[in-house]
Amino acid sequence: MLWETVRLAFTAIIRNKLRSFLTVLGVVIGVAAVIAMVTIGRGSSQSVTASVEALGANVLVVRPGQRMMGPPTGADAPRFDLKDAEALGELSSVAAVAPSVTSSQTVVAGNANAATQIVGTTAAYLTVQNWPLAMGRAFSDGEVQAGSAVCVLGQTVRATLFGSGDPIGQTLRIKGVSCEVIGVLAAKGAGSFGQDQDDVLLMPARTVQRRLEGDSDVNSISVALRQQATSEEGVRQVSEFLRERRRIGLGQRDNFSVTDMKEFANVLSGVNAVLTSLLSAVAAVSLLVGGIGIMNIMLVSVTERTREIGIRLAVGATSGQVLQQFLVEAVVLSVLGGALGIAAGLGLAWGGSVFMSIPFAPSAPVVALAFVFSAVVGVVFGYFPARSAARLDPIEALRHQ
Question: Residue 74: pLDDT band by 50, 70, 90 thresholds?
Fold first, then answer.
C-alpha cells in the first residue's frame, strides 16, 4: 500500500513538472545558501589559523604605539631601532628576534619592473617567520652588520622580474641602489586578509635604513619565544622590559603594543564564526520561505484535484490514505530539493574557495542537518494541505468542477 502511495505521489509530481520545479527551487536555494555560507566560513577560519601557524609557535609582534596594525598612534610613540631588537634577544624567554624596516619601492631588473614591499631585516627573519628558502642563501651576519646591497626575492617578485629563470647572482635596482640577488623564498600564498605574502623583497635592515629610508626607525619587531616559554610569560617579560627601556612610569600607558599572533588568530576566527552564523541564519530563512512555497503549492494542488480526491474517497480510499499521498508528495519535493541543494551548495562553496584562495572545508554534520531539515520542512508544511485534502466530503468533492 505504501509503495502504491509513493507511485501516485511521483505520478502527480511528474504530471505537473513546472509547478514541481518551482516548489523544489525554494528548498534548493535555502539548502544551498546555508551549506555554501558555512563551508566558506569554515574555510576562511582555517585560512586565518594556517596563516598564523605559518609564523611558527609562540610568535609575538612588537610595534610602537597602541595599534596592532597601521601607523603608530601619535607623536608620543617613539620608534624602535635595531638596538631595541638586539636587547630583546637577551631575554630568557626569547629564542630569536627579527626587526622589520618596511619600504614600498619599485624594483627594476633589465626591462622588467615590479612595485613591491621591501622588508629590511636580519637572517633571523626566516627562522621567526618559519619561511624556508627555495634556492640560494640568506644574509650572512657580516652582510647584515655592513648593510650590504644584497636581497632575497619572494616568488611573486621573482616571477615578475625573471620569469622562470634563475635569478641568483643577477643584479636589480631599487631607488638607484644596485642589489645582488642571493636567494629566493619558498612560496607562501595568500595571508589572513588575502594579501600576497610572496610579493616581498628582503634586504639587510641597515641597507634599507641608510640607502632607501634615510633614518634608523624600525617598524616592528617579531619575537619568537622558546618552546618551553608560554605566550603569557613572553608577553609579560617583553612588556616589562620595554617599559623599563622606554622609561615609562608607573601608571602611564604603554607606548607600544605586544601582540600574540595566536590570540590574534583566535580573535579573527571568532569574528569570522559570528559572521558565518549570522549569514547562515539569514540563508536559513530562505528554507522557511521554501517550506511556505511547498504549502502554497500543495494547497493549490488540493483545490485543482478536488474531484480526483472525491473519486478516490468514493471508491473506498480512506482519509488516511489521501493524507498519506499528499504528505508523501510534499516530502518527496522537499527531499529532492534538499539533495539538489546540497550539490549546489557544495559546488558554490568550492567555487568560492578557489576564487578566495581558501581551503574547501565542507562539514558533514551541517550537510546532514540541512538534508534532514529539508525533509522536516516537507513534513511540517505538507501536513496542512494533506489534512485539508483528507477532510474533504466525497459528495461535495464529486460535485466540484
Answer: very low
Cell 466525497: give the residue: 394
User: Is residue 23's pLDDT more than 50?
Assistant: yes
88 & 204 share domain: yes
Residue numbers of the domain that contains 83: 79-254
Q: Is residue 60 part of a domain?
A: no
Tell me the pTM: 0.61
Instruction: Specify the higher pLDDT residue, 373 or 310.
Output: 373
Q: What is the mean pLDDT of residues 204-227?
A: 88
- Grid coordinates in use for 125? 627573519
Radius of gyration of the chain (CA): 33
Long-range Cβ contacts of 348-353 (<8 Å, 24+ apart): 348/32, 348/35, 348/36, 349/35, 349/36, 349/39, 349/40, 349/43, 352/36, 352/39, 352/40, 352/43, 353/39, 353/40, 353/43
Mean pLDDT of 196-224: 88
Whether 69 is covered by a domain: the verdict is no
266-277 core/surface letters (b: 16 or more CB in 10 A; e: else): eebbeebeeebe
